[in-house]
Structure formats: C-alpha cells, structure tokens
Specification:
- By secondary structure, the protein is mainly α.
- The protein has 17 helices and four strands.
- It is elongated and about 95 Å long.
C-alpha cells in the first residue's frame, strides 16, 4: 500500500468511526464532551505507555477509557453538587486532565514519539510506515487496520443499540420508563467515544479527532431530520473530508491532519449555505415565499372587506394598492402577480376581483 493511500484510508476509517458516534453527541447537545474526552484521555494514554514500557494499543485503550470515565465521573460529581453548571464542570475537568497529561509527556517522554506535536496533530503522515507484523508476515499499515476496526466496531454498536440510543437521545424519560436504562446507554456511548478517541489519537491527533466527531454530524444535521439518514450522511461527510483534505495537503504541501480538519469545515460551510433543511439560502427563500403568501392573503382579505362597499372601485384599483396597503409599487406588483398565479384574483379593467378560491382565503384566515 502506498503512503498516500495509507493516509487516506486511515483518515477515512477514523472519520467514519468518529462520525457515527458524533451524530448522537450532536443530537444530545454534547459536542463539547467529545472535545473534552479527546483531550482528557491523555493521562491514561501516558499511563498505558508507562505500564507497557512502550507503545501498546491495548494498554493505551485501557488507560484512555479509564481517563474518560474519570472525567465523566468528575463532571457528574461537580454538576450534582449544584454549585457548578455542567458546561463549567467540563471546562474545569478536561483542561486539568489534559494539562496533567501534557506535563507527564514533556517531563518523562520527551525523547520518544509521544510528544506535544503528536498530541495535537498526530502522525498521519507516517501511517504507511507503521506496519503491523504477525510473526514474519506484514499485514500492512497498522493505522489503517485501527481506523477500519474502529469504524466496524462503532457501526456494530450503533446498529446493535440503535433503538436504545434513539429513544434515550430524544426522550430520556420514556427510555427510563420502558426500562432502556438511559444512564447505561450514555455510559456505553461515552466509553465508545473514549476508545475511538484513543485509537485515533496517535494517527490524527486531538484536533482532527474533535473535528471528525462533531463537524460531519453537524453538517448532516443541516441536510436531514431523519436519524438513519443523518447517520449515513455524517459518515459520508467525514470520509469526504478526509479525501478532500488529503488532496488539498498534497496540492499545497501542508499538514495532512490540518487540511482534513479544514476540509470538513469547508464542507460544513458550503452546507450551511445550500443545505435544503437548514441552509441559509433555502431558508431565506422559504421566508421570502412565506412573506409573499402572507401579503397575497392580506390582499385577498382587503378585497373581501371592501367587496360590495361604496369604495370598492377605489380600493380594488391596482394603481392604488400601494397607497391603501402601504406597499411599494414593486412589492404591490409582486403580490398581485403571486395572487393571480395562485388563482385568488383576476384583473378586470385595472381592478382586481376575487375568484371563488380567493373568497375562501379570508374564511380560512378566520374572517
């Protein structure tokens, strides 16, 4: 496997693994928890490195999960005290754990690859060099296997606990009432986040891990309000960010991890503009259509109010709508055109006359 392909495969595997869990973090309004866990696992990783006397995936995962659960427990303890809000508790605990891990790394492991730069940016550029050997057989780059395994495990978790995750995410009270144990489900989710963050840590670093957890899921949320579709789109956007980021890094000779994180942000920015569910442009168009429809309904009510009255001829004159309804000439023309298109009014010698459908509009509005 070429070095470039190894980087892309590692990024895609980690992106999909993080995005699958990130969907539920975003929906639960726990985005900052992913950031906190991605940093707070550092002391556990250092402890695993020390206990194993060198790099060990199993020891690192065990230490990372222990650190993550410690962080979650401390946050819960501070929150339940009633003296500290949940967001403030996160802001207190995870910087302390991350700072402790950074001190340990720089003090005791400054002469190995586990340094501050690796913590933040990872070593995805060297993914093709870290070969997994079984006996005398080379099975290929280990980061690729780790990313793929994390993606497969998280897919199995989301599939196996889909009902529990869905109900406890949208209605924890109902989940508790029907015996789905939302606390246990959340603990399982947090443990999976910790394992994923630990597995992604050395390859992509804390910055890209956080980006892959949150940005693809937030992007998918702009495109759909259906959970299965959001999960699939989140994974697809994460993988696309990895591919686009690698291409950008090669084109401009820059950091691969940084380019991948930036690419996910660019995809989010584009979606924020054009996504049909939550994009700025479609939302602005919907508001414009609603405003135009409301104005057309106002016109129908105006015509119905003056129908048969002595001033009907004046009040229904197209040329005088702006004066009577305080509309600009351009806006009045747009409203009349919309009302005609809807079949609510017809033009009759410079005046407007309600159709049968138009006479039903004021009745539907409560007149």
């Amino acid at each position: 496997m070429s070095y470039g392909l190894a980087m892309v495969a590692t990024g895609m595997g980690v992106a999909v693994a993080c995005a699958l869990l990130g969907t539920f973090l975003v929906l639960r309004r726990m985005a900052m928890v992913a950031d906190a866990i991605s940093h707070a696992i550092l002391p556990g990783l250092v402890a695993g490195y020390w206990l194993a006397h060198g790099p060990s995936l199993a020891a690192g995962l065990a230490g990372a999960v222990a650190s993550a659960l410690l962080m979650v427990g401390c946050v819960a303890l501070l929150t339940r005290s009633g003296r500290v809000a949940s967001d403030a508790a996160i802001g207190l605990v995870f910087p302390a754990l991350f700072a402790l891990g950074t001190v340990l790394v720089t003090r005791f492991f400054s002469d190995v690859h586990l340094d501050a730069d690796a913590i933040l940016y990872g070593n995805i550029e060297f993914a093709g060099l870290e070969l997994w050997r079984w006996g005398g057989l080379s099975l290929g780059p280990r980061p690729v296997w780790v990313g793929g395994a994390l993606a497969a495990l998280n897919l199995a978790l989301v599939t196996g606990l889909y009902k529990e995750l869905k109900v406890s995410t949208f209605d924890p009270g109902l989940a508790a009432a029907v015996g789905l144990a939302p606390v246990v489900v959340q603990a399982a989710l947090m443990a999976a986040v910790a394992v994923t963050a630990a597995g992604a840590f050395s390859a992509v670093g804390a910055v890209l891990a956080v980006a892959f957890f949150i940005v693809p899921a937030a992007t998918a949320f702009l495109w759909t309000d259906r959970l299965p579709r959001m999960i699939a789109l989140s994974a697809a956007f994460g993988a696309a960010g990895a591919v686009l980021g690698f291409a950008a890094a090669v084109r401009w000779d820059t950091s691969v991890a940084g380019a991948m994180a930036t690419a996910t942000g660019v995809v989010f920015g584009a979606s924020w503009l054009v996504a049909p569910h939550g994009g700025l442009i479609p939302s602005a168009r919907r508001r414009a259509r609603q405003r135009l429809r409301f104005a057309a309904e106002t016109l129908a009510v105006h015509l119905a109010t003056h129908a048969g009255a002595p001033d009907e001829a004046v009040e229904s004159a197209v040329a005088h709508l702006g004066e009577h309804l305080r509309w600009s000439d351009a806006w009045a023309a747009a409203v009349v055109a919309d009302a005609v298109r809807r079949g609510w009014v017809v033009r009759d010698n410079g005046r407007l006359r309600l159709t049968e459908a138009g006479r039903a509009v004021p009745r539907a509005a409560g007149r």
